[in-house]
Amino acid sequence: MVREFINYLKDEDGQTSTEYILLVAVVAVIIIKFKDKLETKLNGLLDGVFDKANKELGGLQ
Q: pTM for this structure?
C-alpha cells in the first residue's frame, strides 16, 4: 500500500491536471481582485456597442 502511494506521488501524469487547477485558481483570484475595473470596462464597451447598433438600426424602423 505504501509502495503504491509512493508510485502515485512519483507519477508525472497527474501533475498536468494539478497545474491546470492551479492556473485556474490564479486566474480566478486575478478576476476577483480586478472585478470592479473589469465590470466598468465591460459595461462601457457593451454600452458603446449597443448604442452604435441602436443608431444604425434606428433608421430601419
A: 0.47
